[in-house]
Structure formats: C-alpha cells, structure tokens
C-alpha cells in the first residue's frame, strides 16, 4: 500500500508511512466497495405512508370536543369580564348625567309623546272611511188610534182606551171641539182627583168654538218660543180648570216627532189648600210643528214628602194653615223643585219618555 502523501510503500503491518510519517490509509471494505453499475428498471413511485401510533376508538372526538369546550369557556369568560368592566364605567356616567336632569321634564315629555300617539291613532280613525251602520227598525208603538201613536214607559201597560169625544159647546169658557182622547184605566195611581189621559185638539176648530181661548193659545206659543228656565207659571190651555195654578215645579221642554212642548208638575185649587198626592199632577202642553194640533196630557203623580190628601194634613188647624199659607206654598214649591225627577211616582222621566214617543199623522 502506498502513502497518499509521498507515494512511498508502507508495510502492511505498519500504521504509518516510514518516509513522511503520514497515517496509513484505511483499507476499503466490502461495504465501501462500489458495485458495478447495473441498469435500473424504472417503476412508478408510491406515496410514502407515515405511520402514526394507533389511538383507542372514540378518543379523537372527545379530544376535539374538550378543546372546543375550553375555547368556548374562555371566550365567555372574556366577554363577561368586558361587560363587567363596561358596567363599572357606565354606572357612574349615567348617575352623573341623571344628577343634572329634571325627572318631571322627562315625565312630561313621555306624557306628551303618549298623547301624540293617541292623536295619531285618532287621526288614523278619522281618515279611515266610516262604516255606515245598518239601519235598525224602530219598535212598533204600543197604542195607535186615529192620528196619534205612542208607547208606554218600558215594562208598563197603562191600559189606554182611545175614543173620539164629541164637542162640548154649552159654556163658551169650557167649549171644546170634537177631539181624540186616550184614557188610562190601568194607571199606577188610582183614587186621585184627576183622571190620567192624553187628548189631541184641532187648534183651528178649538178657537172657532172657544174664541176666549185665543189669548191663552198665543201665550203658550210664545212661552214655547222663549223657553224660560225658571218660570213662575206655565200656560195651561186645555183642559180648562175653574181654579188657579198653585205651584209650578219640575219644568222641562220635550220634543216628539214633528212637535214640541213643555212638561211641569202642578196643583190647581180654588182656595188655600195643602199640596197633596191626591191633587198633584204631571201636565204636558205642546203643539205639532205645523200648528194644527194641540196635545194636552194630565197624569197624576205623587211624592213621598207630601201628605196623602189635604184633609189629613190640615186637621182642625185650618185657620192657622190659612194665616201661613203663602210661606207654606213657597216652602213646598222650593222643596219639590229640588227633588229628583225619579223621586216622583210614576217617575217623571218615564212619563217624559211616553210623551217623546208620540207620533201624529197630520192630514
């Protein structure tokens, strides 16, 4: 073997070159020998497979789930921390703002906004086309005869019997023409001085047979035109009483179909006499709008504050009663004027409803 440095021969048993002292080159081994090149047949490459340690079944899913859970919990915690920090900053800020705000102004503003909202709703309702209600048929009147129809108060039946009464011409002051009359035979009050009835008189014929009544008719027409609020007296045209109007209370103006009139509570007398439930009555006097007919109703009424009759009230003290009569009348009239219309019997409002239900067919 030759030295690689100087080319001198080196003995096999020697480890160094005897000429230059260089170490003996290593001998080639069979592993170091390069085999003679052989032709290589090309084959398709196969992808390398990387083997990983086998995991037990189901552990991969659990591992991924735990990871997502921890990530979610972390995010939630982070959000809670941010919210708490935000609230801690916001509360002092809100308090500092509210310290300088008048809460009454806020309340007033809220009220105004609510009212504005209501106005908008009302405007919307007004703008919407109104629906026309279906017409309802008027109930049939309880009583119809000749030219007059009317209905009783609700739930009542006064047993009206109609008739045509002949003319009375013997005495000029009391003369009346032929007229229609409804007498109530089942009226709630009985044994009273006046009979309950409604009468209809033709005005032209009445003035023809009773010319003295022309002034009274004109007085009633003027009274209904003015409609005074607290009159001392109401003109009573018919029936004609040979007595004076002692009290006039509970005056109201009522209308009916094609007509109008006045109702009041009164008592007539020829001398000093107590106001009592036997003589007290509800009166209605009115005209049709065309002026052809006069309607007169006389309906007895009572009040719990009054005596049943005059005799019982006076007793044996008639002289004392006469001496204080004027003051007595004023006291009773003032008292009855303040009473509710529903405190009378029958109730004045029920009798009003009957008057307002009248329908008169003029020729």
Structure, explained:
The chain is α+β, with helices and mostly antiparallel strands and 363 residues long. Among the domains are: 1-26, no CATH class; 146-360. The chain has helices at 59-99, 103-127, 203-209, 214-226, 310-314, 318-323, 325-338, 348-356; strands at 143-145, 148-150, 160-165, 179-184, 197-202, 244-256, 259-269, 281-288, 293-300, 359-360. The longest helix has 41 residues, at 59-99. 20% of the residues are buried.
SSE layout and pairings?
Layout: H1 59-99, H2 103-127, E1 143-145, E2 148-150, E3 160-165, E4 179-184, E5 197-202, H3 203-209, H4 214-226, E6 244-256, E7 259-269, E8 281-288, E9 293-300, H5 310-314, H6 318-323, H7 325-338, H8 348-356, E10 359-360
Antiparallel strand pairs: 1-2, 2-10, 3-4, 4-5, 5-9, 6-7, 7-8, 8-9
Strand fraction band? 15-25%
The structure class reads alpha+beta
The span between the termini is 167 Å
The low-pLDDT segments are: 28-44, 46-60
Overall average residue pLDDT: 82
Describe the biggest sheet? 7 strands, antiparallel
What coarse outline follows from CA principal-axis ratios?
rod-shaped
Number of helices: 8
Beta strands, count: 10
Give the ordered list of helices and strands: HHEEEEEHHEEEEHHHHE
**Rg over C-alpha atoms, rounded to the nearest angstrom:** 60 Å
Strands side by side in the biggest sheet? 3-4-5-9-8-7-6
Helix fraction, binned, reads 25-40%
């Amino acid at each position: 073997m030759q030295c690689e440095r100087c080319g001198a021969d080196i003995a096999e048993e020697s480890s160094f070159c005897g000429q230059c002292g260089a170490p003996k080159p290593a001998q080639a081994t069979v592993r170091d020998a390069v085999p003679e090149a052989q032709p290589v047949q090309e084959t398709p490459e196969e992808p390398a497979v990387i083997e990983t340690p086998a995991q037990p079944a189901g552990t991969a899913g659990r591992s991924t789930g735990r990871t997502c859970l921890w990530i979610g919990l972390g995010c939630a915690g982070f959000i809670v921390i941010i919210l708490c920090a935000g609230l801690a900053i916001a509360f002092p800020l809100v308090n500092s703002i509210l310290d300088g705000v008048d809460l009454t102004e806020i309340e007033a503003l809220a009220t105004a906004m609510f009212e504005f909202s209501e106005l908008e709703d009302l405007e919307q309702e007004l703008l919407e086309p109104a629906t026309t209600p279906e017409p309802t048929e008027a109930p049939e009147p309880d009583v119809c005869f000749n030219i007059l129809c009317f209905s009783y108060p609700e739930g009542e039946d006064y047993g009206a019997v109609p008739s045509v009464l002949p003319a009375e011409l013997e005495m000029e002051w009391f003369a009346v023409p032929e007229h229609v009359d409804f007498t109530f035979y089942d009226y709630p009050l009985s044994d009273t001085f006046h009979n309950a009835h409604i009468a209809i008189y033709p005005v032209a014929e009445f003035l023809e047979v009773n010319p003295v009544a022309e002034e009274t008719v004109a007085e009633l027409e003027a009274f209904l035109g003015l409609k005074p609020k607290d009159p001392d007296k109401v003109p009573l045209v018919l029936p004609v009483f040979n007595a004076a109007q002692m009290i006039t209370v509970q005056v109201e103006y009522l209308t009916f179909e094609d007509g109008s009139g006045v109702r009041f509570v009164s008592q007539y007398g020829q001398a000093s006499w107590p106001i009592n439930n036997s003589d007290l009555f509800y009166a209605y006097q009115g005209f049709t709008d065309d002026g052809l007919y006069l309607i007169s109703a006389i309906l007895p009424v009572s009040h719990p504050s009054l005596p049943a009759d005059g005799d019982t009230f006076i007793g044996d003290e008639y002289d004392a009663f006469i001496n204080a009569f004027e003051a007595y009348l004023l006291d009773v009239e003032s008292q009855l004027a303040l009473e509710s219309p529903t405190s009378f019997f029958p109730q004045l409002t029920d009798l009003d409803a009957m008057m307002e239900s009248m329908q008169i067919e003029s020729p």
